[in-house]
Specification:
CATH superfamily of the domain at 27-217: Lipopolysaccharide (LPS) transport protein A like domain
Number of strands: 43
Number of helices: 6
Function: Together with LptE, is involved in the assembly of lipopolysaccharide (LPS) at the surface of the outer membrane.
Distance between the termini: 48 Å
GO biological process, one term: Gram-negative-bacterium-type cell outer membrane assembly
Radius of gyration: 35 Å
Pfam families: LptD (PF04453), LptD_N (PF03968)
Mean pLDDT: 85
Structural class: mainly beta
Subcellular location: Cell outer membrane
Main location: membrane
Length: about 775
């Protein structure tokens, strides 16, 4: 017997591909079901506009009143009333109050209503409607009321109901003994409110508020509920507080059956002192069995702030701190991820002028491992940038200066002051054919270092001076092919050649020997080497490791453009570094390149169809003499919220290890994955993803999300299985894996706004969220 096995992802892709013709504009469909004002909305005082009355018959008792019967129409400004019989009270020939007897139909630019008997003040904005069946104009919202007393500010409804569902849809409604709709503030107050689902009452509240417009209102937001194999069942209920037009807060209590309560407040503000966000997460006692420190609270604090003041000053803060190293492994938080390995804490104050800027800043990393040396914190760090074009004839001058103090949490590591000057003079030459930049630069750095306080701390050189000149020539041009390889396309070539020279100086005395052996410094790390990075001045970020250079970098990009649309459809870049002499920072072989070796990178993008993109990149590391990084991605994207992406990622073990300051990973990363987000119909959207490490032969993460949308409510189901941190007391090796299996369900009521299908929100979930990896539009 032949067995057919279909994975969840394959079924999702098949479903998506066969649903490409489904309607997906829910907003237009919903708004097509609501009334719209016909004609142009008149502005000004409606009560001072003339009153026009038409009827089959009229009995006028001049000057006190008039009675109209038979298809009566009254029009004044934006409001129009139809009724069977109307008596109009007059004062000196001016209509004042209209009494509608029997059935009526009232319409203006805000509301439509039908009912039985009404009274309308034609010299004001007051009206009283009986047994009304009303519907908002231009937006979703309808209901009934035993009586309605309306004016310019409010509508007071007795024994009333409201729903944002379209006519003939009774999915949900809210009944109230009394309802006050505040027109300008766009919210409603209800007393003795009953919430009904399909006509069945499921919730009662003596008092309730809800929005009837797009303005923010305090109240309950969308809850979230589900189950996790790690956390147990959970329920999360956000509470929104609209403090003022320029600030608000959201407080989210969450209960986990296996952990207890977590409280998560978030505060946003926009003031004269800047804009920003402060947030926290707090668990007093975590009952999770794998958490051993039961008496210790677990918490997170997050603060982002930005301000521009006094026209030339800028200040920013980005601060995240957690209570323990396992926090992001044990909690799903929007403020950090376990894959980052650290939390960042920094600030910066800067003063900006057209030719210079100066800034003082500080940065610290909270790392989440116990082994190896910790990254340095820097405080203070003072930086100066100065620019002056044509300082000499055809020469542009720049100066970068820095003073920084580095300290480490580990007493074994040294501390240091670093003083750096970096003047540069650039001569840009260009014509219609090419450009040539000749740049000279000087790196002058002085270190004042101090041995670590631990007994076993390494001895270190007290003061170090390093002066390195640099010369760079950079030639670029753009050439057009006279005879194109493919008909219908034009082709360009963009060759680039760069020569870089910098003498060698042994820098093993900067920092500790441990740092030097890894090619690290106080703030240095090996740069990722893609095509564009080949033309960087330095192999290392930071200023502590400046490798010698006597090298030629040759590369180029070819591009194809459609003759019909002028759109770029393909590009391919290739580059190579040829070392005329070894590039090194000290005598350690691992920190040097072999003589005459070449580092190179390839990168390409291909838009072979308006809906299809391909991207690939490849990087070769000559220090390791092997492929270091590679990735391939294929994407089908017929429109914004419909996408299918297949990708492959590779990183060699040695490349990963040389960029880690402590533990060694000990394994290549060979990861394949696929993600799909699709609006299947106007009501149904989905997301599915699956990533697998084929080197370890283990799945990394699998997700499925389904959202069902209607005009007045939506529901989302989410299920996932992803790698999680090793529990306390369990073995932590490459052969032992631990997963968290979870699912969740949430409902959302829509009060006439928010028609998002949910695809973009679902694509952001998970450890490996969807990213757009293409640079051809």
């Amino acid at each position: 017997m032949k067995h057919y096995r279909y994975s969840l992802l394959s079924v999702a892709i098949i479903t998506a591909c066969y649903s490409q013709y489904a309607a997906a504009d829910l907003r237009h469909q919903c708004l097509a079901g609501v009334p719209h004002f016909e004609g142009e909305v008149l502005t000004g005082d409606q009560t001072q506009m003339p009153v026009y009355i038409e009827a089959d018959n009229a009995l006028i008792n001049q000057p006190t009143d008039a009675t109209y019967t038979g298809d009566v129409s009254i029009k004044q400004g934006n409001r129009t009333v139809w009724a069977d019989q109307v008596r109009v009270e007059q004062n000196g020939g001016q209509a004042r109050t209209a009494y509608l007897n029997g059935r009526f139909d009232y319409r203006d630019n805000l509301i439509r209503a039908t009912g039985q008997n009404a009274q309308i003040d034609l010299t004001g904005n007051q009206a009283t409607l009986g047994n009304a069946d009303y519907q908002l104009v231009g937006r979703q919202g309808r209901g009934t009321a035993e009586s309605v007393s309306a004016n310019e500010q409010t509508r007071i409804l007795k024994n009333a109901s409201f729903t944002a569902c379209l006519p003939n849809d009774n999915a949900w409604s809210i009944d109230a003994g009394e309802m006050i709709q505040h027109v300008k503030e766009e919210y409603a107050e209800l007393w003795h409110a009953r919430f009904r689902v399909m006509g069945v009452p499921v919730f009662y509240s003596p008092y309730l508020q809800f929005p009837i417009g797009d303005r923010r209102r305090s109240g309950l937001l969308i809850p979230n509920a589900g189950r996790s194999s790690r956390d147990g069942y959970y329920y999360s209920q956000p509470i929104y507080w609209n403090i003022a037009p320029n600030m608000d807060a959201t407080i989210t209590p969450t209960y986990y059956t296996r952990r207890g309560w977590q409280i998560s407040p978030e505060f946003r503000y926009l003031t004269a002192f800047g804009e920003g966000k402060m947030a926290g997460e707090y668990v007093k006692r975590d009952r999770l069995p794998s958490w051993t420190e039961k008496d210790r609270s677990r918490h997170l604090f997050f603060w982002q702030h930005n301000i521009n003041f006094l026209s030339d000053w800028r200040f920013s803060v980005d601060y995240t701190h957690v209570s323990d190293k396992r926090y992001f492994s044990d909690f799903d938080s929007v403020y950090g991820n376990s894959t980052d390995g650290y939390a960042t804490q920094n600030f910066k104050l800067g003063y900006f002028q057209p030719h210079y800027n100066i800034a003082i800043s500080g940065k610290r990393f909270q790392t989440f491992d116990d082994s190896g040396s910790k990254p340095y914190r820097v405080l203070p760090k003072v930086e100066l940038n100065y620019y002056k074009n044509d300082l000499v004839k055809h020469g542009d001058f720049s100066l970068y200066a820095q003073s920084a103090y580095f300290a480490n949490d580990s007493k074994e590591m040294p501390t240091a002051w670093r003083f750096h000057l970096q003047p540069a003079l650039n001569f840009p030459l260009a014509n219609r054919y090419a450009s040539l930049n000749l740049e000279t630069k000087l790196y002058a750095t002085y270190y004042l270092q101090k041995k670590g306080g631990a007994e076993n701390a390494e001895a270190i050189e007290r003061s170090v001076t390093r002066v390195l000149p640099q010369l760079k020539l950079d030639l670029k041009t753009v050439l057009s092919a006279k005879q194109n390889v493919f008909s219908g396309f034009s082709q360009t070539f963009e060759p680039r050649v760069q020569y870089l020279y910098r003498p060698y100086k042994n820098q093993a005395n900067i920092g500790s020997q441990r740092q030097s052996s890894l090619g690290l410094g106080y703030d240095s790390a090996l740069l990722q080497q893609d095509y564009y990075a080949l033309f960087n001045d330095r192999r290392y970020s930071g200023l502590d490791r400046i490798a010698s250079a006597n090298q030629i970098t040759a590369g180029g990009t070819t591009r194809f453009f459609s003759n019909e649309t002028g759109e770029e459809v393909f590009n391919f870049s290739a580059g190579q570094i040829y070392y005329l002499s070894p590039s090194k920072i000290d005598s350690t072989s691992i920190n040097s390149t072999a003589k005459r070796s070449s580092s190179w990178a390839l990168e390409s993008n291909w838009k072979f169809h308006p809906k299809w993109n391909w991207h690939g990149s490849y990087q070769y590391d000559t220090r390791l003499n092997e492929t270091s990084l590679a990735n391939i991605a294929l994407q089908y994207k017929p429109k914004a919220n419909n996408v299918v992406q297949l990708n492959y990622r590779y990183a060699s073990k040695n490349y990963i290890d040389q960029n880690l300051s402590s533990n060694r990973y000990g394994q290549d990363i060979k990861q394949v994955g696929a993600v799909i987000g699709w609006e299947l119909t106007d009501s149904v959207s989905m997301m599915a993803s699956h990533y697998r490490d084929i080197a370890l032969k283990k799945p990394v993460e699998s997700q499925l999300g389904l959202t069902y949308n209607t005009c007045c409510w939506s529901a989302t189901f989410y299920a996932a299985r992803k790698l999680t941190a090793t529990p306390e007391g369990k073995p932590d090796t490459l052969n032992d894996f631990y997963y968290d299996n979870r699912f969740g369900l949430n409902f959302e009521l829509r009060f006439g706004s928010g028609y998002n299908s949910g695809v973009s929100r679902m694509l952001k979930r998970g450890m490996i969220p969807y990213t757009e990896a293409f640079n051809i539009n």
